[in-house]
Amino acid sequence: MLYLQMTTLGNEINGIQCEYWFNVINLRLGFVGRWLNAVIFYLRTLFTKEAFFFTHDVVSGDILARLGKPYSMVFHHQGPLVEEMTNLGVLRNDRKIKKLAGKERNAFINAKTLHFPANGAAEMYFGSRYANCQREEVNVCPALYNIIPYVNPAKPKDFPINKDESKITLFSLGTLTIAKGQDQVIEFIKNYISVFTKPLRYIMVGRGPLKDELLKQLKEIQKQHPSFEFLYYEGVPHDTVMYLHKISDIYIMLHRISIFDFATLEAMSQKSAIILSKVGGNIDFNMDNNIIYAEDVNKDSSILANADIKGLQNKNYEIFCEKFSKEAFVRQYQDFFKKVL
């Protein structure tokens, strides 16, 4: 994210000079590397005068708070850090949990402004039982959206899949975990396969603990609906991901946890219609009735049956260009600088 800011915003905004501090130690040294980078950041910050800081990192935010430096912060994690790391199965030590939660709270409550990459992500954070502070304790400001560059992908050499106008192609991308909700995608397909006006082709990319069970369920759907086709890849290069977006009619991800899904932006950039779950940052993508939410379809299947897929595809591309372009990214930071500095 810092690299994106540097390449997009440059060295000056509204006449204010900008510097970008990256980690000095980039070797894979684990805890030692993280500790050394924290020490270097502490010393560099300690001796920096007359500066306003902008951080994306809890550790840096905690250091800035302890030094009494003015700063703003964008929090990019999938909910509170303890929740995210617990979900990943990498945090089990009570002492570490308490320490991490303390750093996060300190970074949050001392920030001049606190931002999330989506307004829905803020709602998700403060609605979590792991939240380390109440919303009233911090100065939560409007979201600072991320962007991706537009690309026009070509078909990768020797890749076997083409655009198929005789079918509706659904595409999902993400780790095969409960949090990402791929199991809910397959349940959605099973429930509404008959609603679509053409046979379905489903492309799933990702690896994770749910793989075997999900493939089993897809084979069951195929037995019941012989016209249904599914293709599975554990992983493909990013240029292939973008090509799959391009040849797909609908991008579908029914996350249980999501702050701001870059793959959804990629889908918008390639003129896909989009079906999402109504959680976290997924809510921010719906700017002009351009997103189909699974929860709404569950209440009224005619929403899916009557959806103007081509119109949604064009609308998503228009919103991508207007709201998530390089120009839009620059404008939101220019506005931030005007208000904060």
Task: Provide the fold topology.
Elements: H1 2-9, E1 12-13, E2 16-17, H2 31-46, E3 53-55, H3 58-67, E4 71-74, H4 81-87, H5 94-109, E5 113-115, H6 119-126, E6 168-173, H7 182-192, E7 200-205, H8 211-224, E8 229-233, H9 238-247, E9 250-253, H10 262-269, E10 273-276, E11 292-293, H11 294-299, H12 302-305, H13 309-323, H14 326-340
Parallel strand pairs: 3-4, 4-5, 6-7, 6-9, 7-8, 9-10, 10-11
Antiparallel strand pairs: 1-2
Helix pairs in contact: 2-3, 3-5, 7-8, 10-13
Can you characterise this structure?
The chain has 341 residues and is of the alpha/beta class. The protein folds into two domains: 161 residues, Rossmann fold (3-Layer(aba) Sandwich), CATH 3.40.50; 156 residues, Glycogen Phosphorylase B (Rossmann fold), CATH 3.40.50.2000. It is built from 14 helices and eleven strands. The strands form three sheets. A six-stranded parallel sheet has the order 8-7-6-9-10-11, with helices on both faces. A three-stranded parallel sheet has the order 3-4-5, covered by helices on one side. A two-stranded antiparallel ribbon has the order 1-2. Helix 8 links the parallel strand 7 and strand 8. Helix 3 crosses helix 5. It is globular. The relative contact order is 0.12. The mean pLDDT is 93.
